[in-house]
Design brief:
Order of helices and strands: HHHHHEE
Structural class: mainly alpha
Strand content: 5-15%
Number of strands: 2
Helix content: over 70%
């Protein structure tokens, strides 16, 4: 999927002409759409929102010379041994 998304972004001119700030704005737009879908209980909207955010993140990572998989692996390695507890429905890491 990552290759298909990057091929699409290349075809649309995003990789050659897009900017990091443009992608950040797009990510914010998609986040608000996801937030609305969650608030409204719109299951298809949630799927679309998560997918759209992932597409933007894949493109953004590529624009700065990384792969989405690298970023995901890095994040996992940061959290895998993390200790903490649940508070009000959110995991809070120990200091």
């Amino acid at each position: 999927m990552e290759k298909l998304i990057l091929d699409w972004a290349k075809e649309k001119g995003i990789l050659d002409n897009g900017t990091l700030n443009g992608q950040l704005s797009k990510l914010q737009e998609e986040f608000f759409e996801l937030s609305d879908a969650i608030s409204e209980g719109d299951g298809n909207g949630v799927i679309d929102g998560i997918g759209d955010m992932t597409v933007v993140l894949i493109i953004l990572a590529n624009m700065i010379g990384l792969s989405h998989t690298e970023c995901l692996a890095y994040a996992y390695n940061q959290i895998k041994d993390r200790k903490g507890k649940m508070e009000n429905g959110t995991f809070v890491k120990d200091a």
